[in-house]
Amino acid sequence: MEIDATFYRIPSAAQVRSWASKVPEGFSIATKVPQVITHEKMLVGAEDDLKAFLGAMDEAGEKRGPILFQFPYVRKGTFASVDPFLARLEPVLASLPRDKRFAVEIRNKTWLGEPLFDLLRAHGVAYAIIDHPWMPPVAQLMKGPDPVTAAFAYVRWLGDRHAIEAKTESWDRLIVDRTKEMKLWVDALAMLLDRNIEVFGYFNNHYAGHAPGSIALLRETWRARFGGPPARSARPRTGA
After folding, report:
1. DSSP letters along 23-47, please?
2. Is 187 in contact with 223 (CB distance < 8 Å)?
3. Is residue 171 domain-resident?
4. Residue 129: inside a domain, yes or no?
5. Rounded mean pLDDT of 136-157?
6. What's the number of domains the chain is made of?
7. Would you say the pTM of this structure is higher than 0.70?
8. Residues β-bridged to residue 237
9. Residue 40 falls inside a structural domain
């Protein structure tokens, strides 16, 4: 599962141990780097914050899953192009422990390309592939420079938060038909699995109105395409 709470604050060691104790065997805990690091400080002077966060997440032990750096959409007043962002990101990636899995999510589509992917690949960090209205559809993404930058892929189905919140305030049913998009996603996931890439996938309720329903749609679409369930390494989870 993907825990959203870590985005808002660094958890205590006791909290992380509690999460780990409640997660069934075979599951792992994916977490977000706190926003104080990715949004408020934008990586500058955040060394102590990152060290404290990673230390807390060590308490998850074998159930510690990938850790996501979720960056916001960055306006030109902050970075005129991807280059100064990469210059700031590189020393942070170089400082990360190699025995943990990390992913980086960005929401500036013009930043996608070989400079970003090559930097992530050099440090074994995954580019987070997302379904988001600001970013290219997955079929388009897969036709460009290779977005696979690690031995695993981190996929997040986020959807259009503002559009769906205009339609509903409850998250107990599917209200957006994602059948067409899901067929494209199934093809993309199959391509990743054919490359022996382990896939961690997480659905947000905002994707279609009900994360468990979106998981069911993915499974149904996969069975219709391939006649069987996805491999265990590609089973999706609910997330935020």
Report:
1. SPTT--EEEEPPHIIIIISTTTT-H
2. no
3. yes
4. yes
5. 97
6. 1
7. yes
8. 202
9. no
* Full domain range(s) for residue 200: 71-238
DSSP label at 85?
H
* pLDDT in the model for residue 233: 53
Any domain includes 153: yes
Give the model's pLDDT for residue 126.
Answer: 98
Helix, strand, or coil here: 79? Answer: coil
Give per-residue pLDDT as tens, 72-103. Answer: 999 988 998 999 999 999 999 999 999 999 99
Contact present, 78 and 42 (Cβ < 8 Å): yes
* Contacts of 95-100 spanning 24+ positions with Cβ under 8 A: 95/47, 95/50, 96/123, 96/125, 97/54, 98/124, 100/54, 100/64, 100/67
- Predicted confidence band of residue 234 (pLDDT cuts 50, 70, 90): low
Q: Considering only CA atoms, which of 88, 90, 82 is closest in space to residue 123? A: 90
Bridge partners (DSSP) listed for residue 126: 103
Tokens of 71: 């960056």
Task: Please list the residues that pair with 128 across neighbouring strands.
Answer: 154
Rg of the chain over Cα atoms, rounded to whole angstroms, equals: 17
For helices 47-57 and 82-95, the axis angle rounded to 10 degrees is 50
